[in-house]
Structures are given as structure tokens and as C-alpha cells.
Here is the input.
Amino acid sequence: MKLYKTTIIPTSNFATPLMGDTLFGQMCWAIRFTYGNEKLEELLSSYETKPFMIVSDGFASGYLPKPTMPSVFLGENSDEKKTNRKKVWLTLAQLESGDYSNAKSDSYISNVSKSEGVIKNSLNYLTFTTSEDGAFAPYSEDETALSKRDIYFAIDESFSLAELQETFTLLSNMGYGKNTTIGKGFFTFSEFESVYISSNSKSFMTLCASSLEGLVCKELFYEPFTRFGKHGASLANKNPFKKPLLLADSGAVVSFETTQNISYIGKAIKGHSSHKETVHQGYAIVVPIKELLS
Here is the structure.
């Protein structure tokens, strides 16, 4: 698979976290709207054995997340746990060399990721009141202001760079995540650039939430993440809810007994929706890191 990177520049707040599996789902809708359902079905026909596209989370521009490993493997001072938790960003060179103890904080690299609750109130358009009894019933939703974010796309020969660019352009115009109808989740993006990352290593880090069930490895470190998914577009009209999925969050570390030559790990996920054709991105792009595991 070929790896590309683009940098998005948010032009509004985001109401949904910028995560790879959500981006993949919205890209599938954008492919359908751009090229038709037949094209999307063709791309997904072999997805369980050969993914046509894998999408990463959005990361602070120029950086990648710190690996999810105990402090002893990261070379951190165990007496500075509170400070260490804020240092979450590393360059690719630092990951490859194992320079984990020099991770940077959001404030150090001027990265903005500020969430705040916005008070809203729903309106019944039949009665033009806020509730059945006319009572004021406010609720809160989180919105996040973001600075520039790098997103990585791994694509195979069945999905060209031109198709990726056209599809992502449509997504940027539709908006990402929820509340796009009120102006949330919009962005512009830079030209896609080809990225070369060596795929030979014994240890790797994932760039999005993934399903690592059945993976044969020496060591595995991860934070669990539960995805409570919902359908979008026309599939949201009837039973939009999907079954919860337990995944390994972005930054998971996998170590093998011998050197591997891989660019992604994980698997496709199906059977979690009443819509049988639904597929979830359980794959993750991986980057090699220096082995610190015993």
C-alpha cells in the first residue's frame, strides 16, 4: 500500500473527535456520493482480506502520538507522572530512535485542542415549544477548537490518489462528524504528499483505533477504547445504532519475536449492525519504533 499525508486546517469547531475509523466511514459515504454505490461495493468486496484504504487519526501537525507503554519502557522519570501525561507528541525520528522521554506537550508545540460544553435547547416544530409541557430543557454538547492536523491515508492500487483527493474534497465540503448542518466539522487541506516510512522492525505503533483480536505477537500494550457507532446519511433513517466495539486505541504498541515487514495490522469488522453490508475499519496504519521491550 502507498502512504500519503495531508494537513487539514479547521475552519470551524468540531463536534466529533477526529478519529480514523470515523473518517473511514465518512470517506466511504463520500466515495458513494462521488462515484456511485457500485464503485464502493467493488472497493469493499475484498476488504476483509485486503483493505483498499486505511485512515489514521488526526495528529498535531508534524508530530505523532507517544506510544502507549509503561514509563519504564519510555525512559520517563516515574516521579513526574503528572508532567509525563501532558507530554504526548513525538516526531517520527524520535519514535524510530526511541527518544520517548523528550515528548512535547500541547503548549510546547502550540497545539490547540480546546473542548468546551455549548448549551443548546431543542425545539418542537409542531408546537414551537422546547418540550411537551413548554418547560425550558437545555442540554450541553462538547465542541472542540483544533489547530492544524496531519492525517495519513494508506491506499492500494484499486483506489487512486486522484480518487482520494476528489473524495476528500467532497468530505471537506460536506463537513466531518455531527452538527455539520449548523456549521461544525469544516476544513480545508493541503496537497497530499507521498510518505516513505521503513516497514522493517520488531516493534510498531498504531495510528488509529484497531481490532487486534487474534494477533500473534510477543508483547502488546494498548488503552482500550469502546466505539459506540451510529450510521449516517440514508442508513440513519431506521435503527441508526450499531453494536459497541471494543478496540485498541491509537498509539498501541505491538512487538514481535522477529523482524516484520508490515505497513498495517488489524482486521475488518462486520456483523455489528442490522445492515449486513456494514463494515468497520479495524485496521491501523503502523510506524516502526525502537524496540525497548525485554
About this structure: The helical segments are 20-35, 37-44, 71-74, 81-86, 92-97, 161-174. The CA atoms of residues 234 and 240 lie 9 Å apart.
